[in-house]
Design goal:
It contains 14 helices and 12 strands. The protein is α/β, with parallel strands linked by helices and 347 residues long. It has 2 domains: 208 residues, inorganic pyrophosphatase (n-terminal core); 127 residues, Diaminopimelate Epimerase, Chain A, domain 1 (Roll). 49% of the residues are buried.
C-alpha cells in the first residue's frame, strides 16, 4: 500500500487530533477516489460521500467506489442525496490519490475486482477509520479506536480544514453517527459524538427523515427477512449466546440480497442477559458472514481475529467459507470456549 513517509494519529483519546499531513495531502490531489468497505453501512456511505463532496477534484466532486451490488435499498437514499459520481475501473488508473474511510484493512476495500490487484500502484492513500483492528495501511493514517463512527472522524477533518458543512453533508454525517452508535445508545457514544451531532443538526441535518429511513423504513422484503432472523434465533451456552442464521435460499426467498444484510444482528442481540450475539448470513452461496456483538463490556474483537476477521471491541465480524449450518457448527463451540476462557480469567 502506498509509498513514502507515514504519519499517523492512533487511538489517543475520544478527540484524537487530525494528523498534520492529512489535509495538505488531500489538497494536493486533483483526481481522488474515495473508497469504503465491502457491503457499506450508513457510516461507510456517510463518510465516503461527505469526503467526496468536501474534497472535490479538479472537475467536481471526488469519485466514490461503489461497485455493482454495493447499495442496499434501505441506504440508497444517502447516495441519492449526495449525487456524487461513481468511479469506473478506468478512474482508478487515472486517480492521483485515494481516500479510504471506515475500512480496517486492504482486503476489505470495496473495489472492482478488475483493478483491485494493481491498486493503489504506489499512489498516496489517506486512511480514516475507527476500527481497533486497522492495519495502518495508508501513507497518512487517522485512526481513533475510541470514536463511535468514521463519520465523527470525517466531521473533525472537515472542521479542521474549515470546509463548509451544508445541509447535505450534515445529513450524511449525522446518519452515520446515528447509525453506528445505534441512536446514541452504545458505550462508544462519547461527548464528542454528541457535540458533533448537535453541530450537524444546527447545519441542517434532516433528523426526522434520517430517523424514519434508518429506523422505520423497512420494505416488505426486508420485513420478511427479519421474520426469518426472528424465527431462526436460538439461545445456547446457558443463556450467554444468542445467535441466528439466514441461508442464501432464505435471504433470496425473502426478496433480499447480500447488500440488505446490515444491522439484523440487533435481533438476537435484543435478548436480555446474553453476553454475545452472533448473526450468520449466507449472502452468497457458500460464503457465510458473521456479525458478532458483545454485551456488558465483553470484548469480541479477539474472538473475531481468531476467525481471520476484525472490527471493534464490542462489534466485530468475519467471513467463513461454507453454508450457515457449517459455519455455525464451526463457530459456536469456539464462541462458547472463548466465553469460558474469559470467565476463567475474571474469576
Amino acid at each position: 500500500m502506498g509509498q513514502g513517509m507515514k504519519q499517523s494519529t492512533v487511538n489517543t483519546d475520544a478527540t484524537a487530533s487530525v494528523p498534520a499531513d492529512l489535509i495538505p495531502t488531500l489538497d494536493t490531489w486533483d483526481r481522488p477516489v474515495v473508497v469504503g468497505h465491502v457491503r457499506p453501512d450508513a457510516d461507510c456511505f456517510g463518510s465516503m460521500l461527505a469526503m467526496a463532496l468536501c474534497w472535490p477534484g479538479a472537475n467536481g466532486p471526488s469519485l466514490v467506489s461503489l461497485p455493482p451490488g454495493s447499495e442496499s435499498r434501505r441506504l440508497s437514499f444517502l447516495v441519492e442525496w449526495a449525487n456524487v459520481p461513481q468511479a469506473e475501473p478506468a478512474d482508478f488508473l487515472k486517480a492521483d490519490g485515494f481516500i479510504v474511510v471506515d475500512t480496517a484493512k486492504v482486503s476489505r476495500c470495496n473495489i472492482d475486482p478488475s483493478v483491485k490487484e494493481s491498486w493503489p500502484d504506489g499512489r498516496g492513500v489517506v486512511n480514516i477509520d475507527h476500527h481497533a483492528s486497522n492495519t495502518l495501511f495508508g501513507n497518512v493514517n487517522y485512526v481513533d479506536h475510541d470514536a463511535g463512527s468514521a463519520c465523527e472522524l470525517v466531521y473533525r477533518v472537515i472542521r479542521e480544514a474549515g470546509r463548509e458543512i451544508n445541509a447535505t453533508v450534515a445529513s450524511l454525517l449525522y446518519a452515520g453517527i446515528h447509525s453506528d452508535t445505534i441512536g446514541f445508545s452504545l458505550p462508544t457514544t462519547r461527548a464528542s459524538a454528541l457535540r458533533a451531532a448537535a453541530d450537524l443538526v444546527a447545519c441542517g441535518a434532516r433528523v426526522e427523515e434520517i430517523g424514519e429511513r434508518l429506523c422505520r423504513g423497512l420494505s416488505e422484503s426486508e420485513f420478511n427477512l427479519e421474520r426469518v432472523i426472528y424465527a431462526n434465533t436460538k439461545i445456547v451456552a446457558d443463556g450467554r449466546i444468542a445467535y441466528s442464521t439466514a441461508s442464501y435460499d432464505e435471504i433470496t426467498g425473502a426478496g433480499c440480497g447480500a447488500a440488505d444484510i446490515d444491522d439484523q444482528v440487533s435481533i438476537p442481540r435484543s435478548l436480555v442477559g446474553i453476553d454475545m450475539a452472533i448473526l450468520l448470513t449466507e449472502g452468497k452461496p457458500g460464503r457465510t458472514r458473521l456479525n458478532i456483538r458483545g454485551e456488558r463490556g465483553l470484548d469480541v474483537l479477539p474472538f473475531a481475529l481468531t476467525l481471520d476477521g476484525g472490527g471493534h471491541q464490542q462489534s466485530a465480524g468475519a467471513i467463513i467459507d461454507g453454508s450457515v449450518d457449517d459455519a455455525a457448527a464451526k463457530v459456536l463451540p469456539k464462541a462458547i470456549a472463548y466465553l469460558d476462557e474469559r470467565a476463567k480469567h475474571r474469576s
